[in-house]
User: Fold this.
Amino acid sequence: MAKKSDNYYFENFIQCVECGCQAAKMLEENLANFDVSRLSENLDELHKIEHDADKKKHEMMAVLVKAFITPIEREDIILLSQSIDEVTDQIEDVLIRIYINNVHTIRPEALQFTKVIIRCCKVLKEIMEEFANFKKSKTLHGLIIEINALEEEGDRLFIDSMRLLHTEVTDPLEIIAWREIYNFLEKCCDACEHVADAVESVIMKNT
Assistant:
């Protein structure tokens, strides 16, 4: 019985990360095939994914409240759950900022960002698929390093994107809009790294 309960948490983590992967792919598709007339509709579709992620998180919290024994510390389960949920939230926030700032064309650097975010989410899913075996895993450490490297790639892209924005664009409203959007794109990469950091912390505490 305990083994089945333990698996539940790890499976839930994987399912919630999968929501982030779906959101990242949807964001990339929306920006690559940008259509202002469908932006509100696309935002609703992305929100459904975010809502599904929230639902999975709340389901796990309900199980956790009643659990007598957990595979890792309760506070670590809560931290991981919240950190994973933040990934999907941040991805949704990017499209929200594009919508409220009334953006009509997508800058190429934003598309580059979405590709980095997709890669981050892909590695994050690999981490979570391996996480149940964290005490014996030979691959988790390398995957965490890979997430850190991708976050650094996101940081460099953020700097380069902001530089191009301020050297190529003269419209102050466009600059303000894209500064905010770039900030939220970077936060997506940061959110993925935060999950990896939480996983690393659990490993350090339990091995």
User: Anything to note?
Assistant: The first helix runs from residue 2 to 32.
